[in-house]
Amino acid sequence: MTAFHTAPGDRHSTAHPLYPAPPSLTNPAPASSAIPESPLILQHPDRTPLHPLHPLPTLHPPVDFFQAAIAQAGIAIVSLDTTGIITTFNQAATHFFACSENQAMGQPMDSLIPPEYRTVAAGALQRTLQQHSVNHYEMAFVPPGGNHPLHVGVTLSCVLDNNNQCLGVVAWVRDITNRKELETNLLRTRHMAALGTLAEGVAHHFNNIVCGMHTMVDFALTTEDPATMTRALHLSAEAATRISYITQSLLGLNCPEGEPASAVPADLTAELRRFSNAVEPGLAKKGIVLQLELQAQRNAAVPRHRFAQALQHLLRNAEESFRGMSPHQTKRITIRTMSQQDQIMLQFSDTGMGIAPEHLPQIFDPFFTTKGVQSGGHESNPGLGLTFVHALIMDLNGHVWADSVLGQGATINMLIPATT
Fold it and tell me: What is the CATH number of domain 263-417?
């Protein structure tokens, strides 16, 4: 490498006009000297110094480099033309699909996909081509000679030319079996934790109720006053009714009573209108305004009986949030729907007292309540309403979560898959 030397007494003398040398370290300039025209540039003794005004040119690897990188990549890469025909099949793909490059080239991508996943794969491919977007899907199959299913994640990305025209699609195929096993184990752990919470709640409630019934029956057996005996037996009957209510609520989480499996699903929007018409007069008498904002352009199928129960639980929860508010404060419940791609967002909002931040992560847990007798309230609330709502939305392959600002209200958000 050519060395650049600075001549004594001439700080700006250099062998290259674009890279001025630094001041001499052996003969530094006096303190009264003028500021150098060029900034101080530190350099390695064996390297050409870098000047901030003259950055190095951008490197452009040859096309052969990218071709070799794709061919030898550690992940299966398959490229398709706009009709879904395989045009590139790298080495990792041959091992992944147990198929040689010659066998795969010129064949449709469907030939590598199990029949039960072809509809999903075709939809993802069409979205990628039409929207020039990135799409994902997953599938599972037992590879040739294997005994256990292989879980696969596929990412499709569109390749565009300089005119924004689609040249084809690249499929990046990954083995996600380990991730799926970890997710399954995590879900099993969460289920066991939830089961423990459920068992603890059931035992606590039933123990309190049964102890009260035992006391009332003993009192009825020992008293000689018919009126007192009748009162004690009535209280025992009320306790038995409470046990029945909790039992039916628990059964309704998975086995809805009165709704056979063959029942025809109802339309989400129609059920919301039906619910609104039924409850609006009663809410008006309580000074509560019910507002509907049904903006969803698509439909969603819901089980009529369970969905009506879920709405009742949400309504009861919203009404309870208004307790403690002054008469001049607005009491409003808003039911809103919006379309979000392949899902419908359903929101049940109120302008009540809101939910404390420390309670938000627990509101869907079984037997969690801040209003029942167990939590210092004044009514028999076992805390299963929002648990029922959560179970219903999850059964519909949806998602549910809550947002709240303390003192301003709360919103239960429910994402439900659209059907049309």
Answer: 3.30.565.10
Token code pair at residue 317: 């929860």
Residue 242 host element (H or E):
helix 226-252
State the CB neighbour count (10 A cutoff) for residue 14. Answer: 18
Q: Write down the domain spans for the chain.
A: 1-58, 70-175, 184-252, 263-417
Pairing mode of beta strands 289-294, 332-340: parallel
Q: Give this prediction's pTM.
A: 0.47
Distance of alpha carbon 190 from alpha carbon 1, whole angstroms: 64
Cα–Cα dist 255/237, whole Å: 26
- Class for domain 70-175, per CATH? alpha beta
Q: For residue range 307-347, what is the model confidence (pLDDT) as tens digits? A: 988 998 899 989 998 987 888 888 999 999 998 878 899 99
- By three-state DSSP, how is residue 167 classified? strand
**Contact between 266 and 301 (Cβ < 8 Å):** yes
Q: Provide the pLDDT for residue 90.
A: 92
Show the DSSP H helices in 143-225 as ranges: 177-222
> How far apart, in whole angstroms, are the C-alpha atoms of residue 167 and residue 160?
6
By the 10 Å C-beta count (0-12 exposed, 13-18 middle, 19+ buried), 153 is classed as middle
Beta carbons of 384 and 250 less than 8 angstroms apart: yes
According to DSSP, residue 160 is labeled: E
Q: What is the Cα–Cα distance from 174 to 151, expressed in whole angstroms?
A: 9
Q: Is the pLDDT of residue 18 over 60?
A: no
Summarised one tens digit per residue, pLDDT across range 346-358 is: 999 999 999 888 8
CB of 367 closer than 8 Å to CB of 205 = yes
Non-local (6+) Cβ contacts of 144 within 8 A are 98
The answer to whether residues 275 and 329 touch, using CB atoms and an 8 Å cutoff, is no
Average pLDDT value for residue range 131-156: 86
Which residues have a Cβ under 8 Å from the Cβ of 39 and sit 6 or more positions away? 52
Report whether pLDDT(369) > 60.
yes
- The half-sphere exposure of 111 on its side-chain side, counting CA atoms within 13 A, is 14
* Residue type at 351 in one-letter notation: T
